[in-house]
Recover the amino acids of this structure.
């Protein structure tokens, strides 16, 4: 039986209309296994095309420079060859009636010298996240990074700006700044990873400065209404991030300040882990931050069809992003609509090269009862 609930309604995302409120979340898939780290029409194009029934697709993180790389075989958006590759991907999605944003990415200290000819990765402060980086030789322990100079920060701002310009050349409907999950911007936000004493450290305003300088640079080449930003306020104990008393106030400051911009959306994550015993954590992110932000709010992490619809009905979010369910269910929207059970994903093929576990998940033949 067809069910018609709020999650299936069209949504006006500033200058574009989404055909539903179901978003394909950005997920690293490590399939750009070529010398130029280029997304291809044959692989990435087919993958995203298969999932174009989503109201919006947000691509995997795409590095804005060689310095930004931190995972094996991730596609970039900083060379002409990469732009041409993404053009073909975007074209396939658009011809299938889909909408697609690209996520702009710099992993900061979550990288490894193996990606940088032996040079140290960049970070706000020289503090090892004590995590692991996925290198061409498998997972390796992270190292103590190089503290970014002000010149490094200014150059990185320009890298994001150029990547935004490239994204527009490639025909993307918009961009998402990956300011989440323990990567570079999140490292600047967090007091346990940023112990700087200059204008990029110390106060909440200073720790958010790099992000807003980047946003202001991006809006010179990308219309504000085509820019989104992703945050994970209650991330703790993962990707080198430990919450402190300033963590939630920092995100409250950032999100309130974003009301001064006409962004496409903010994209928030519910806690990745059980934070019931974490002193400073907010347990329900959508409920907490919805009253603080006037624009479009997207939420993700662990939603089912029912809970996703419910969070929209309650007015706590406008869009819901799904990650792993979209890996194994290219027809996720139809499965939700027609109450078809979801296929299970294969963890072992999340980051392996080629089509297996990527474009070979079948769609379900639907027996529709009208």
């Amino acid at each position: 039986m067809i069910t018609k609930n709020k999650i299936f309604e069209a949504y006006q995302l500033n200058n574009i209309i989404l055909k539903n409120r179901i978003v394909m979340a950005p997920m690293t898939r490590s399939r750009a296994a070529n010398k130029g780290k280029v997304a291809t029409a044959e692989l990435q194009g087919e993958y995203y095309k298969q999932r174009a029934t989503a109201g919006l697709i947000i691509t995997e993180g795409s590095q804005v420079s060689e310095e930004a790389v931190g995972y094996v075989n991730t596609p970039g958006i900083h060379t002409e060859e990469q732009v041409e590759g993404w053009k073909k991907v975007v074209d396939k999605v658009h011809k299938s009636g889909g909408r697609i944003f690209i996520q702009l990415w710099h992993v900061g200290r979550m990288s490894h010298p193996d990606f940088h000819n032996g040079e140290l990765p960049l970070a706000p402060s020289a503090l090892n996240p004590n995590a692991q980086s996925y290198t061409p030789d498998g997972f390796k322990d992270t190292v103590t990074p190089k503290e970014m100079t002000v010149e490094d920060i200014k150059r990185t701002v320009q890298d994001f700006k150029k990547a935004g310009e490239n994204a527009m050349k490639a025909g993307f409907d918009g961009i998402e700044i990956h300011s989440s999950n323990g990567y570079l911007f999140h490292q600047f936000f967090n007091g346990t990873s940023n112990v700087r004493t200059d204008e990029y450290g110390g106060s909440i305003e200073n720790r958010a400065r790099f992000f807003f300088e980047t946003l202001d640079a991006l809006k010179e080449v990308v219309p504000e209404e085509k820019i989104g930003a992703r945050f994970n306020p209650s991330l703790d104990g993962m990707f080198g991030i430990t919450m402190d008393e300033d963590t939630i106030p920092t995100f409250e400051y950032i999100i309130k300040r974003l009301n001064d911009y006409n962004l496409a959306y903010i994209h928030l994550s519910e806690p990745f882990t059980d934070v019931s015993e974490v002193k400073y954590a907010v347990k329900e992110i959508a409920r907490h931050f919805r009253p603080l932000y006037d624009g479009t709010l997207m939420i993700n992490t662990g939603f089912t069809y029912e809970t996703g619809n419910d969070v929209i009905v309650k007015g706590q979010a406008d869009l819901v992003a799904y990650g792993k369910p979209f890996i194994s269910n290219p027809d996720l929207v139809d499965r939700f609509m027609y109450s078809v059970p979801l296929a299970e994903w294969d963890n072992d093929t999340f980051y392996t090269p080629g089509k297996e576990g990527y474009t070979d998940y079948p769609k379900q033949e639907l027996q529709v009862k009208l």
